[in-house]
What does this fold into?
Amino acid sequence: AMKGTYSWTFTTGDGKNPYVVKTSPAGDATGVALSTIINVSFSKCMDTTTFTSSNVKVSADGKAVKGALSSKDGCLLTFTPGQPFSEKQKVTVELSALIKASTGGYLLPP
It folds into this structure.
């Protein structure tokens, strides 16, 4: 039998503004393959014209990473690095609040 109470909390969205649902690799992941491709899933399909290099920034150990942004439908954003990452690099992905949903509303911070 379970002792005590199992509980958790969550916060509801505002119904208009999109947010990140999932990232791959996950935040704080370790041991990620050097040839990894970065994926971001959104709660709403996004306006793909806002997927620009100024709105989506990838860096490794503080240095910008060049690569290609792609999205078939705006619901999944893919970043393919121009070359594999180096060993033990800390990779950071930054998504601007200027990325917006195809129906309007701008990306909410986590």
In short: The first strand starts at residue 20 and ends at 24.
